[in-house]
UniProtKB/TrEMBL annotation:
Residues 19-117 form the STAS domain. It holds the Pfam family STAS. InterPro entries: STAS_dom, STAS_dom_sf. The lineage of its organism: Bacteria, Bacillati, Bacillota, Bacilli, Bacillales. One of its GO terms (molecular function) is anti-sigma factor antagonist activity. It comes from Anoxybacteroides amylolyticum. It comes from the Bacteria. PROSITE patterns: STAS. This is STAS domain protein.
Amino acid sequence: MKMPTIRIEATSTVQYAKISLKGKLVYSTQQMAKQTLIELFQQAEHDVYLFDVSELAFIDSTGLSMFVHLLKQETDKQKTFLFVFADNQAIQKLFTIAKLHRLFIFVPTERDAVRWLASRSRQPVNR
């Protein structure tokens, strides 16, 4: 029986760190994924992490909870987590069923993420 795998690729733009997840984020892969993401966070120079989960084949409850744990870890650092689903409606539905839309920002495409970031930067600062 073949073990599930996860592949994580990180790139950076002027506005955000983009992290692409491919494969299966399940019990047997989430610990490695979590460690990789923590290392990426330590190296990141951005306040925004864009998670591209459009090529994620499957995620279970341990994978979903990993994102919540990472958000809690990064909250005091004022980080923003954006999730791009593209046409991966099955994964988006799992995130929504878990009510993660209350914690994270969901956008259909990376272009929508850029638009969201631009609109956020035009908002007045509360004093």
